[in-house]
């Protein structure tokens, strides 16, 4: 497999996947946000059940969990190892960071909010990188040194490149 040298190579791979596998990435992006919210609803049902000691909330949690699993299968068609769980947790963490960032923004902490939003987007981008099979652990060591630089200040390292991919290749506004 050829090493991925830059964002253009990433985008080319995504475009090829879209044509070959007929991905509707705008719908998949919407579905990924729905899955994020379902994970959040599961958490809220859990905490509400614990706080109220009302077991009916656990029944609701289970119903939402079943729906979330069914919908996540539409996004993650094939996986190995713990990619399923990793994907779920990437989406969940991204959603939580967005929510905390929004709260920070609401109280006027714009710098803190932006940092949280960046982290949320990085996790979200990693979700897509893993599930579009653009990121594989055996490929990571093959990526050109110019692409990954842990000293990057402009987010041009690996996570920055994935973020650029998501911005350019996954457009939720395409109808």
Sequence of secondary-structure elements? HHHHHHH
Domain count, please report it: 1
Distance between the termini: 34 Å
Low-confidence parts lasting 5 or more residues at pLDDT below 50? 139-152, 168-175
- Shape from CA axes? flat
Total strands: 0
Structure, explained:
This protein is mainly alpha-helical and 175 residues long. The chain has one domain (7-169). Helix content is 71%, strand content 0%. It contains seven helices and no strands. The protein has helices at residues 7-21, 25-52, 56-75, 83-106, 110-131, 137-140, 158-169. α1 (7-21) packs across α7 (158-169), α2 (25-52) packs antiparallel against α3 (56-75) and α4 packs antiparallel against α5 (110-131). The longest helix is centred in the N-terminal third of the chain and has 28 residues, at 25-52. The model is unreliable at 139-152 and 168-175 (pLDDT under 50).
